[in-house]
Amino acid sequence: MSDLTKQMPPPSVLRSQEIVSRTLSVVVDNEPGVLARVIGLFAGRGYNIDSLTVTEVEHEKRLSRITVITSGTPAVLQQIKHQLERLVPVHRVRDLTEEGGSIERELALVKVAGKGDKRIEALRLAEIFRAKVVDTSIEHFVFEVTGKPSKIETFIQLMSELGLVEVSRTGIAAIGRGAVG
């Protein structure tokens, strides 16, 4: 056995230390300060948030859903879920990724400037991506594009070669597959 092989942890330990991304759905009371408490949990422990969306989902019960995309080792992600579950205004925490995936969508507004061939190419690509033109002038377009985050990323990359000016994204909205709520 080489010295390098002796120093390497077993494969099971290496797998448990891999950084993975998770989509968490957190149902909370819709009241002042709840979002700050949830985000404070992440910030206070140095956890990163890749995407965050919040909206009221049950008006009569005054419940909101916070969708958080975060990443870390499986142990860290388990710790995040347990800490979220202990917060008083939290009703339910679901790991949509672990439950077998989720339906994820995002909306982006993409401003592109260009004339001539670049303008024609931007319109052609927008049609392929099913992006809508929501504002236009002689020198620019603002496209609305929705879909999986990977689709949004690809569209933005292509537009950057054609005169990308500005991007505004909503963050990811996600829901679990199947009948379970």
TrEMBL record:
It catalyses: 2 pyruvate + H(+) = (2S)-2-acetolactate + CO2. It holds the Pfam family ACT_AHAS_ss. Keywords: Amino-acid biosynthesis, Branched-chain amino acid biosynthesis, Transferase. One of its GO terms (biological process) is isoleucine biosynthetic process. GO terms for cellular component: cytosol. GO terms for molecular function: acetolactate synthase activity; acetolactate synthase regulator activity. Pathway: Amino-acid biosynthesis; L-valine biosynthesis; L-valine from pyruvate: step 1/4; Amino-acid biosynthesis; L-isoleucine biosynthesis; L-isoleucine from 2-oxobutanoate: step 1/4. It comes from the Bacteria. Transmembrane segments: none annotated. Catalyzes the conversion of 2 pyruvate molecules into acetolactate in the first common step of the biosynthetic pathway of the branched-amino acids such as leucine, isoleucine, and valine. This is Acetolactate synthase small subunit. It comes from Hyphomicrobium facile. The lineage of its organism: Bacteria, Pseudomonadati, Pseudomonadota, Alphaproteobacteria, Hyphomicrobiales.
